Amino acid sequence: VGVKTVNIDTDFDPFLSANSIVNISTAQNTIKETDKIITKKMTDEEKIEKLYNFVITNLSYDYRKDVDGLNSDIDKIMEEQEVSYSDYAVVLTTLLRNYGIPSKLALGKHESLNTDSAFVIILNEDTEKWIEPFYERENKYIEDASNIVVYKYY
Questions:
Q1: Does residue 61 sit in helix, strand or coil?
Q2: Which of 81, 100, 108, 129 would bridge with 122, disulfide CB 3.0–4.6 Å?
Q3: Which three-class secondary structure state does DSSP give residue 123?
Q4: Distance, CA of 34 to CA of 119 (rounded, Å)
Q5: Of 79, 45, 83, whose CA–CA distance to 64 is shortest?
Q6: Beta strands at 82-83 and 60-61: parallel, antiparallel or unpaired
């Protein structure tokens, strides 16, 4: 088995790159659509808002899909439209990374509610902002993430 060397310039580089789940190469049609609403002059917060609204407007939750596991084909997720809770987070994380916003996909659960979920963690120099995209809130950010237990990050 060969070893691949990866050069990391900043602490955020892994959260701007594609991986097996957050797969930008499978999002080409979706990125063409979001390129229509994202401009270079936008702040990161404006991009986050536009991408969050794009995801929650174009997808709907289907609990029957929760047993399917993680889907990394972004264009296929967007075509299906009725998706699992984790699909929302996979799409949003992929789009954020594509537009240069460092983010993590986190699978876990609300400890107090004992319900599984998928979260997007947006990173900057001194804070993390948590979003649970399939669960719409008036404020898209989770105010207190202390009751969230994470099983895996992507």
A1: strand
A2: 129
A3: strand
A4: 21
A5: 83
A6: parallel
Contact 21, 132 (CB under 8 A): no
**SS3 (DSSP) at 60:** strand
The helices-and-strands tally (H runs, E runs) of the chain is 4, 6
* Token pair in block for residue 14: 């892994």
| Distances, alpha carbon 36 to alpha carbons 18, 32, 89, 116, in Å | 22, 7, 21, 33
What's the CA gap between 150 and 15, in Å, rounded?
17
Asked whether the beta carbons of 104 and 93 are under 8 A apart, the reply is yes
pLDDT at 9: 57
**Can you give the pTM of this predicted structure?**
0.89
Contacts of 133 (CB under 8 A, 6+ apart): 52, 55, 56, 88, 89, 91, 92, 118, 120, 140
Q: What is the mean pLDDT of each run of 10 residues along the chain (154 residues)?
A: 49 78 92 96 96 95 83 93 93 96 94 87 90 82 91 92
- Encoded amino acid at 61, one letter: Y
Distance CA 136, CA 127 (A): 22
Q: Which two tokens stand for residue 136?
A: 């719409």
